[in-house]
Amino acid sequence: MQNMLRRLKALRLLKNKVVLITGGSQGIGRALALEAARRGAIVVVCARNEEALVAVERECLILSGRPAFHYQLDVTNPDKVDAVLATVQHEVGTIDVLVNAAGLGDMQPVVKQSSQMMQTMLQVNLLATMYLSRRVAQQMMDQGAGAIINLGSLAGKIPTPHSAVYSATKAGVIQFDNILRMEVADYGVQVLTVNPGPVDTAFFDKADPSGQYRAMLPRQLVLTADQLAQQVWDNVGHKTREINVPAATTYWSWLYSLVPGLGDWAIKRAFNYQQDKQHLDD
User: Fold this and answer.
1) What positions does the domain Ketoreductase occupy (predicted)?
2) b/e sequence 217-227, b meaning 16+ C-beta within 10 Å
């Protein structure tokens, strides 16, 4: 047990640790990759956009002075995931930290969403996260240490109009992590769930092309990806279960669970939901 604790604490420095990040070509994933490189990690980034991956790999190499790697990957394809994990094991080494940062959203009323988009969000945000976590958790249990970092969201705790399916996938990530954490804790594996509010990335360019959803968000809730990345790595190798940012959102989620009726009323007013409902009725 003491040896496992020492190995887990060793992850706090990240130096020469192998860190695999999905969704590493942009946004939060890219910020996490660059910050890990600054701390001396051997960074492995995975995503579908190989051109962007090559650029991130080069930046990581410069920042860390250590090898960096990239692998093109569609996280919704289990066979491809297995192949990449086998390649990483052979070419890089065992994974010390896994970060599931791949994700997408579609911020519009659920009655307007296509079944294909609903299925894609479920596959990318939840099923891929569960599959990768399951595969890498076994390796980490065998080696007696490791950390799995999964991107949840404030949306998984506090509902907002126009985010029903996205919020459902993130709530699934949070609950999955709660149980995985219990199952791997005795093997020296940390499971850290990161639940940010809105982050200033290109996510909203695709999820909300109209800009209406983002315009309704309080500005003080919007974080930068770099700020989030620093906070995440500061908590690896510790007993931290969740990161909820901004910090006040922890209390908001507690309040919502206590008085959901009042929470619904306040959220609908904040998002001008009645106006949107009128638009749908028209």
Assistant:
1) 17-177
2) beeeeebebbe
Query: Does some domain include residue 38?
Result: yes
How many domains would you assign to the chain? 1
- At 196, which helix (H) or strand (E)? strand 189-196
**Distance (Å, rounded) from C-alpha 220 to C-alpha 237?**
29
Q: Which range marks the domain in which residue 42 is found? A: 2-255
Q: What is this structure's pTM?
A: 0.88
Report how far residue 139's alpha carbon sits from residue 268's, in angstroms, rounded to the nearest whole number.
45
Per-residue pLDDT tens over the stretch 122-158: 999 999 999 999 999 999 999 999 999 999 999 899 8
Please check whether residue 73 lies inside any domain of the structure. yes
Kindly report the CA angle at 16 between 13 and 20, in degrees rounded to 5? 95
CATH (domain of 163): 3.40.50.720
> Are the CB atoms for 43 and 36 separated by under 8 Å?
yes
Active-site residue numbers?
166
